[in-house]
């Protein structure tokens, strides 16, 4: 008998007759899975499958990828441009020409009245790389604003900053193949089974073939922590203390790779002197890991023939995020684990094309990892685009997190938001809401009309989704892969590439700069700009000059660098294998990282740490997965993990509602009692609107300007259950 039933009802999977399979790449996380979309004889999409010949996923897909074909006709999609005078008035349908003309006129009006930087642009890690390149050309070369950034500041800015500080350039040096060669792996704040399931499968497959120590550093007992050999439940925000204490042990016991340090790095003496202040006896009181465990883990890592570190948002989303990344790099360089099979410092990127925006969008500079601060870079791009180099600013402007503060002060009057949803994704929601209400003009460009930030827009531009477009992505391991145009745009929606091109035509510089009509033309420009040499004479690492759309599909993705003279279909798997780094003298930087504790911490009034993260069924702010029934049904509502002992002390019952309060606001959540969190911590998935980011503080990292989503203090209050249920239903509805 099964749950009281005497007869099993057999599971029946309806037949889906596929007449044609079309190749593309998944548009969710940064894993970069190759996908085939099945169309029936009427050219209707009926199913999705992983491509068995792709090195990344080898036929596997997670639940989001399996159901991705349902996005094309999911509810809430934008069907036509909309316009209104005030955000509190109803929208009226309009033509594309009128919507684009109005937007261009408003941009010009704001810039003429308040200055060029008074109009800001915020993009996403969800666009295709040719779209990033085109938007960067539009923002930097045509509109000319220096208030331009992407929502990757919320997830990857600290990884970028840390890589630049340590190695002289952005770009993850390792690859997934390193799992198959390493002899020890430390995961800092990374929960692969839920964040990147297929990368986890690659790791699990490697562990089954040849077991090696898996060490997980995370304050919560995540799914990955449950599978680990050693779990270090660290005090939130203190990773730098733990790493410094590990290096204290490694250096004082002579376990460092001194030959590698002497040949390929600079700054060792300063790091050696600093870590003397981080004896495990003292460090344990700060980071919460006992001194014997610190010593044991340090020895395991240093003595392994090869060792690798990975991290995700547990490191990046911190006031010490950039320092944490630089210190992970320190650990790997001190042990000689950079640029060799199984030895790497590998940032696990968040969004599907966060690497593409880092490479080509010009958010933090100019295309191809060029810098606004570098006169030669400015001159090179200005000459290629055909404009005066004096049109470019001499240094980078505001990041996304600073743009919203500049709206508060009146420095920014207009904003164009592309494929991101700050009303749910940014910390301190109440502050963001007030900022958006203050804008003179807001344009939202998104696949979905019902995205929460669209409540405050004056113009809405409906964009095409995923494989209604054509272009490329770059995944976590620098692998460029192709997205084929499988379906025409939905109703009167348009590809982002088309929208940017049409907007450029409405400005003077847009008449001077060439904007290719097709994405492949933009890709050819990117290939040309990827060639050449750096100021120190080294060849550019971000070289994609040997790639083509045909080669990318044939190879199922190619890693850069892949230069025009390459033979075969494989790029370079690892960076820095020769020990030469893109710094002035070719040596990597070992950086002394001091810890300063500026986190908001639990106190008598707010006794709980608030932690946040992903669940496997959802992606970001649920604008897509919230519309897919078989994703949403597993996590349809916001909930809070709470320790049973803490709940008992407060009289909180399992599956009851509570009000969670911080110094910024409150949120109503359903309680799930679990031992996965300690007594002084609660955990909430970040995907839900009007929930966890009503509470977060979001102090900024001084180097990357990335917010600290995971370190703030809260308290738990009772709430009337019927009213809580009503609020919960209201907030989770699209």
UniProtKB/TrEMBL annotation:
InterPro entries assigned: Asp_de-COase-like_dom_sf, CT_Nitrate-R-NapA-like, MoPterin_dinucl-bd_dom, Mopterin_OxRdtase, Mopterin_OxRdtase_4Fe-4S_dom, MopterinOxRdtase_cofactor_BS, Prok_molybdopt-oxidoreductase
GO molecular function terms noted in the UniProt entry: 4 iron, 4 sulfur cluster binding; metal ion binding; molybdopterin cofactor binding; oxidoreductase activity
CDD domains for this protein: MopB_CT_Nitrate-R-NapA-like, MopB_Nitrate-R-NapA-like
Cofactors, names only: [4Fe-4S] cluster; Mo-bis(molybdopterin guanine dinucleotide)
Annotated family: Belongs to the prokaryotic molybdopterin-containing oxidoreductase family. NasA/NapA/NarB subfamily.
One record GO biological process: cellular respiration
Cross-referenced Pfam families: Molybdop_Fe4S4, Molybdopterin, Molydop_binding
Domain of life where this protein originates: Bacteria
Gene Ontology CC terms: membrane; oxidoreductase complex
Boundaries of every 4Fe-4S Mo/W bis-MGD-type domain copy: 19-76
PANTHER family linked: NADH-QUINONE OXIDOREDUCTASE SUBUNIT G, RESPIRATORY NITRATE REDUCTASE
Keywords assigned: 4Fe-4S, Iron, Iron-sulfur, Metal-binding, Molybdenum, Nitrate assimilation, Oxidoreductase
Name of this protein: Nitrate reductase
SUPFAM superfamilies assigned: ADC-like, Formate dehydrogenase/DMSO reductase, domains 1-3
């Amino acid at each position: 008998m099964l749950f009281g039933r005497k007869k099993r009802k057999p599971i029946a999977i309806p037949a889906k007759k596929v007449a044609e399979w079309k190749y593309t790449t998944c548009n969710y996380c940064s894993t970069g899975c190759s996908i085939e979309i099945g169309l029936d004889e009427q050219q209707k999409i009926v199913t999705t499958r992983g491509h068995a010949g792709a090195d990344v996923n080898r036929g596997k897909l997670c639940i989001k990828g399996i159901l991705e074909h349902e996005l094309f006709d999911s509810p809430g999609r934008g069907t036509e441009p909309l316009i209104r005078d005030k955000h509190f008035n109803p929208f009226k349908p309009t033509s594309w020409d009128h919507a684009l003309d109005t937007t261009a006129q408003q941009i010009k009006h704001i810039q003429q009245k308040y200055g060029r930087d008074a109009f800001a642009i915020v993009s996403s890690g969800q666009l295709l790389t040719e779209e990033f390149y085109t938007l960067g050309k539009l923002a930097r070369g045509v509109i000319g604003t220096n208030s331009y950034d992407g929502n990757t500041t919320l997830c990857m800015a600290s990884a970028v900053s840390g890589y630049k500080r340590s190695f002289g350039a952005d770009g993850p040096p390792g690859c997934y193949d390193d799992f198959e060669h390493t002899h020890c792996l430390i995961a800092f704040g990374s929960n692969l089974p839920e964040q990147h399931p297929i990368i986890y499968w690659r790791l699990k497959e490697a562990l089954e073939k040849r077991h090696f120590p898996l060490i997980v550093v995370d304050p919560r007992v995540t799914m990955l922590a449950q599978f680990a050999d050693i779990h270090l439940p660290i005090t939130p925000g203190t990773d730098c203390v733990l790493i410094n204490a590990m290096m204290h042990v490694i250096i004082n016991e002579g376990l460092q790779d001194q030959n590698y340090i002497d040949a390929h790095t600079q700054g060792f003496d300063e790091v050696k002197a600093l870590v003397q202040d981080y004896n495990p006896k003292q460090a344990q009181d700060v980071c919460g890991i006992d001194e014997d465990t610190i010593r044991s883990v340090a020895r395991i890592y240093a003595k392994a023939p090869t060792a690798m570190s990975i991290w995700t948002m547990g490191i990046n989303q911190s006031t010490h995020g950039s320092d944490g990344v630089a210190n992970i790099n320190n650990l790997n360089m001190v042990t000689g684990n950079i640029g060799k099979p199984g030895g790497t410092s590998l940032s696990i990127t968040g969004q599907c094309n966060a690497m593409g925006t880092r490479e080509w969008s010009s958010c933090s500079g100019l295309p191809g990892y060029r810098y606004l601060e570098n006169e030669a870079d400015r001159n090179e791009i200005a000459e290629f685009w055909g404009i005066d180099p004096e049109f470019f600013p001499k240094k980078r402007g505001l990041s996304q997190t600073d743009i919203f503060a500049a709206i508060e002060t009146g420095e920014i009057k207009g904003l164009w938001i592309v494929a991101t949803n700050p009303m749910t994704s940014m910390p301190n929601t109440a502050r963001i809401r007030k900022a958006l209400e203050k804008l003179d003009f807001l344009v939202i460009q998104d696949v979905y009309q019902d995205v929460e930030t669209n409540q405050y827009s004056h113009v809405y531009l409906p964009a095409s989704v995923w494989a209604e477009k054509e272009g490329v992505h770059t995944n976590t391991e620098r692998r460029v892969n192709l997205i084929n145009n499988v379906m025409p745009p939905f109703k009167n929606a348009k590809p982002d590439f088309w929208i940017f091109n049409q907007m450029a035509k409405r400005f003077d510089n847009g008449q001077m700069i060439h904007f290719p009509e097709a994405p492949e033309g933009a890709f050819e420009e990117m290939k040309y700009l990827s060639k050449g040499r750096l100021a120190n004479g080294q060849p550019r690492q971000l070289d994609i000059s040997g790639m083509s759309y045909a080669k990318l599909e044939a190879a199922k993705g190619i890693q850069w660098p892949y230069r025009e003279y390459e033979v075969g279909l494989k790029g370079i798997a690892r960076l820095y294998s020769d020990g030469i780094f893109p710094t002035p003298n070719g040596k990597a930087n070992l950086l002394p990282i001091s810890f300063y504790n500026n986190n908001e911490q639990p106190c008598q009034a707010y006794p709980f740490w608030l932690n946040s993260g992903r669940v496997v069924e959802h992606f970001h702010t649920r604008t897509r997965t919230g519309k897919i029934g078989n994703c949403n049904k597993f996590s349809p509502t916001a909930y809070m993990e709470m320790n049973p002992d803490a709940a008992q002390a407060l009289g909180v019952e399992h599956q009851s509602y509570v009000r969670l309060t911080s110094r910024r606001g409150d949120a109503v959540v359903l309680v799930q009692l679990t031992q996965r969190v300690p007594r002084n911590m609660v955990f909430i998935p970040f995907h839900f609107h009007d929930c966890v980011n009503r509470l977060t503080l979001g102090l900024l990292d001084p180097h990357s300007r990335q917010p600290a989503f995971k370190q703030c203090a809260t308290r738990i209050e009772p709430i009337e259950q019927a009213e809580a249920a009503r609020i919960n239903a209201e907030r989770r509805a699209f």
